[in-house]
Design brief:
The protein has 346 residues and is an alpha+beta fold. The chain contains 11 helices and 10 strands. α1 runs antiparallel to α3, α1 packs parallel to α4 (50-90) and α2 packs antiparallel against α4 (50-90). Bound molecules: 3,4-dihydroxyphenylalanine.
């Protein structure tokens, strides 16, 4: 009786060809669970007469092994198929592609790049210096008198006080002028973009860090006329040919004479608006002839060489170009602001 059953089930197992993973699962439920065929046959085996037990026991054990092996084999085969067929079902090939999401350059990077490109045409190279600077390069070599307010804790982030040469976050890119002149021989013709730091409360108009581009031109017979023409060319390239410039006398420790340069307001074209506070002019940079003391401090003979220098804030130029009225937008990483520059992928 039991022997016949084993025989029948063995044939069934041998013939069994599943069509899907569901069939494999049905196989397991039929043969291998607690109340499945295999266990049931073992239950029946208990009541078999002792003389039959030996031979039937062997047959039953072989049947059990065959059932388990068949399941194991089919399970492995269908489990991997199951995954790929699931993936295939998920991919709807008729859907449109997702496309790439392009980022955009930061407006300050765009403007920095534009400034650099214009000066490159005039033969200026690009130089950089460290943001953590010592007193000598940031102040002393640039002819800052000892009592100058920039040396005050109020204005400068000092990192380390040390005898005669404090360490600070640079307050301007003029320090790169010093490094360049100390480490090379004239002529120098370079622009130096970079980040600078000042101890200011953050508001729409001031920030504790911002960006500058420094310019330096040192050679024999460099005059104020060279300075004016260079900056005039720069402004016309950047803001358009109808832009006017004017120079106002000013003071910087490292230039003599010094000037501030205004341009005719790019927004109202000189008529007067909120950006230029009704004056028709906006200040964009400081400049002047490199003070002979600075040349000497950097080991350059001031009786042979002269030069001009200038420094401008990139944020200020960007504000003018794009009419941005709050400095904080530049560093808040708000994509609603940044994505407005998407078309300017240069
Ligand atoms: N370093 C000055 C500042 O941060 C800007 C400046 C003015 C740079 C005149 C110059 C210069 O090279 O000649 O305000």
């Amino acid at each position: 009786m039991l022997q016949e059953k084993i025989q029948q089930y063995s044939e069934e197992i041998e013939r069994f060809v599943p069509q899907s993973y569901n069939d494999v699962e049905a196989f397991r439920l039929k043969f291998l669970v607690a109340k499945g065929v295999v266990r049931t046959l073992f239950e029946e085996f208990k009541s078999v007469s002792p003389d039959q037990k030996r031979s039937l026991g062997k047959v039953l054990n072989e049947f059990k092994q065959a059932a388990e092996q068949k399941y194991q084999h089919l399970h492995e085969q269908f489990a991997s198929n199951k995954q790929t067929s699931k993936k295939k079902a998920e991919a709807d090939l008729t859907l449109p592609g997702e496309g790439f999401v392009f980022g955009s350059r930061h407006p300050l990077s765009l403007v920095r790049k534009e400034i650099v490109e214009i000066f490159k045409k005039l033969g200026f190279i690009v130089a950089e210096g460290p943001e953590i600077e010592d007193d000598w390069h940031n102040f002393t070599a640039l002819n800052f008198p000892p009592e100058h307010p920039a040396r005050d804790m109020q204005d400068t982030f000092f990192i380390k006080k040390q005898q005669g040469n404090d360490i600070a976050l640079r307050t301007h890119t003029s320090s790169v002028q010093v490094r360049m002149m100390e480490n090379g021989e004239p002529p120098f013709r370079a622009i130096m973009p970079g980040r600078v730091y000042r101890n200011e409360a953050i508001s729409a108009r001031a920030h504790c860090f911002f960006h500058q581009v420094e310019g330096l031109y040192v050679d024999k017979d460099v005059s104020f006329a060279d300075l004016k023409q260079t900056l005039y060319y720069f402004v016309q390239e950047l803001f358009g040919e109808d832009t006017k410039v004017r120079f106002r006398p000013s003071y910087f420790p490292f230039t003599e004479p010094s000037a501030e340069m205004d341009i005719s307001c790019t927004i109202c074209k000189g008529k007067g608006c909120a950006m230029c506070k009704g004056t028709g002019w906006v200040e964009i940079l400081g400049c002047g002839m490199v003070d002979p003391n600075v040349l000497e401090n950097c080991g350059i003979d001031s009786s042979t060489y002269s030069g001009f220098a200038f420094g401008m804030g990139i944020e200020r130029i960007t504000n003018l170009k794009y009419e941005i009225r709050d400095l904080r937008l530049f560093s808040e990483n708000d994509v609603r602001f940044l994505s407005q520059f998407e078309t300017e992928l240069i």
